[in-house]
């Protein structure tokens, strides 16, 4: 882009890197006299961004220029976890790391484990050079399940891919069901379209155990018991069937023919009275929602990942995803469902060229599930497990804060016989446990390409400024590590530009993207499934799936129904959705944002607080057999009776008593996708001195 007309500032095309469905198009203004970023704004012409950024990212420069940025390689000098380091040169750090990794790899490369998630969603600074490095090494593979694999795999099992409605068409819906999403906090740019629809007369319904600010602004709020969405979906199907609100022609043409009769029988066992009991909802609310879904056109569901962090999360997503197929809502472009749009990008992404799985050269290393890192770091070698984990290389993630059952994660990271390297911007709880911390660049300092899981545009992020201090892009750190290890394949010398060229193909190439305003849209029909054509083998929506069977409601792992003895000791269900001004554990150390959140809190319903003698704003301890989380009680009807909301995800060291909400979560997995069950937890709360 050219310098803007009214000033001497240099304006650079950028993309928000964060793990959020919105993936905003941004422009970064740099003062050429000082080479400092002075402003970050949303691009007005980008349809979903429409010129607006969230509070967090409009302060991204505060994060980049934060006085506590790690700007040189650091070597640990104190005990693990103490955060005591001295600066070292890149040469010294890389040589020592390579020596340690070579010694382990000579015994067994699978004793080395990468650990990464979506600190940046960038295709280059995520899994590109890093993936090549670990493939060439033959390190253990990581199953990246921590967020979305229950719902994502369930959606793919049903529709054939992670595909759905265009987010912009929600503006034309007459009914919007916001299901397991606090959109104002975590999908703000969808909320804009929902508000447009509301102003045009649409009805908005929220399904969430917490009375969020989003729920406050909807016409109806079904405040169900956590982990009971599958039961609700079955009762909705029951009503669609008995009231003849099905679109039989759509079902006959586009729904798996031998799956529907069996599911129909199952749904007929779920009259609204039964679901009302299981979900803890008034039966009228279920009937009303069924009537709305069955009789309003176009009707759209914004499903989100909040409802799949429970044992039955995968099955529940399958059931919810079937609803718009039974009513034929897909016939209209403003009808249907959106959980994720990430599957559409397969048409332009060449992941094999970017990640080079061929470098495994016939080896098939074991896979470790990132969601059980607490247990897996504490495991000894065994025939089932393979070698003990001896080295861990962490990038784009803060597992000590975000992984479930953190007392075990901390013990694992504190192991003296574990060699840990962390690529980071800051000394997070995880970096504090590293042998080496390597300084990484932020989004303002590196090149990247972005796809999205909430819209269907590919975005370009050009570096606005040079790397601060001695920081380097993840790609360059892995390039240098590869050289230090003696990996001499030419692909380890590919520049970021070359990686960008190799990553895209077909309708969106890097060349074309560079010539664009900063984003390009995928060619996808307005109403993609109006005439069926789901990306399944036969083009039909799948109900009875090999290996999964028919979808059903599953009780949570930890509930009064499934675990009555445990519930007698720990009677409160706990969910831990994000605090609005943090992005998972990112931004907790940005003071202006932390000041808005003020302190770690747990919301407790007035009845539950009274029963325990808890006063509003009193210090409390949230606990179970796994750990104890110290925070402040907010006595509030934002919590449902019997459910407490521990808003996440604080850095342990910035929280109370060095704890956060993952002290009490567990490592049991979901029904589909081997994901964590962060919102399927029993606890007790007591006043703390
Ligand atoms: N501000 C902000 N935005 C974010 C994030 C953030 O940390 N902060 N995180 C980003 C990431 S990584 C993700 S994955 C997405 C997450 O965003 P979402 O997919 O929307 O998921 P959550 O925020 O986990 O939960 C959304 C809502 O689901 C509710 N919920 C909890 N349990 C249940 C249940 O059993 N049933 C139902 N129906 N609802 C339930 C929660 O109370 C919460 O209000 O947001 C992204 N955007
Ligand atoms: N109790 C509870 N726990 C949860 C959740 C919950 O709702 N409740 N949500 C879960 C979900 S949905 C998710 S997605 C996970 C998120 O877990 P993570 O993916 O670990 O996300 P963050 O906590 O944001 O940590 C990302 C880190 O990456 C770093 N980073 C960012 N960009 C770069 C870069 O370019 N290079 C390098 N080297 N580092 C970078 C940031 O500084 C930050 O410390 O947490 C999960 N944990
Ligand atoms: Mo996530």
TrEMBL record:
<dbReference type="InterPro" id="IPR006963">
    <property type="entry name" value="Mopterin_OxRdtase_4Fe-4S_dom"/>
</dbReference>
<keyword id="KW-0500">Molybdenum</keyword>
<dbReference type="InterPro" id="IPR006655">
    <property type="entry name" value="Mopterin_OxRdtase_prok_CS"/>
</dbReference>
<keyword id="KW-0408">Iron</keyword>
<keyword id="KW-0560">Oxidoreductase</keyword>
<dbReference type="GO" id="GO:0051536">
    <property type="term" value="F:iron-sulfur cluster binding"/>
</dbReference>
<protein>
    <submittedName>
        <fullName>Anaerobic selenocysteine-containing dehydrogenase</fullName>
    </submittedName>
</protein>
<keyword id="KW-0479">Metal-binding</keyword>
<feature type="domain" description="4Fe-4S Mo/W bis-MGD-type">
    <location>
        <begin position="9"/>
        <end position="68"/>
    </location>
</feature>
<dbReference type="InterPro" id="IPR037920">
    <property type="entry name" value="YoaE_C"/>
</dbReference>
<dbReference type="GO" id="GO:0043546">
    <property type="term" value="F:molybdopterin cofactor binding"/>
</dbReference>
<dbReference type="InterPro" id="IPR050612">
    <property type="entry name" value="Prok_Mopterin_Oxidored"/>
</dbReference>
<dbReference type="InterPro" id="IPR009010">
    <property type="entry name" value="Asp_de-COase-like_dom_sf"/>
</dbReference>
<dbReference type="Pfam" id="PF00384">
    <property type="entry name" value="Molybdopterin"/>
</dbReference>
<dbReference type="GO" id="GO:0046872">
    <property type="term" value="F:metal ion binding"/>
</dbReference>
<keyword id="KW-0411">Iron-sulfur</keyword>
<comment type="similarity">
    <text>Belongs to the prokaryotic molybdopterin-containing oxidoreductase family.</text>
</comment>
<dbReference type="InterPro" id="IPR006657">
    <property type="entry name" value="MoPterin_dinucl-bd_dom"/>
</dbReference>
<dbReference type="GO" id="GO:0016491">
    <property type="term" value="F:oxidoreductase activity"/>
</dbReference>
<dbReference type="Pfam" id="PF01568">
    <property type="entry name" value="Molydop_binding"/>
</dbReference>
<dbReference type="InterPro" id="IPR006656">
    <property type="entry name" value="Mopterin_OxRdtase"/>
</dbReference>
<dbReference type="Pfam" id="PF04879">
    <property type="entry name" value="Molybdop_Fe4S4"/>
</dbReference>
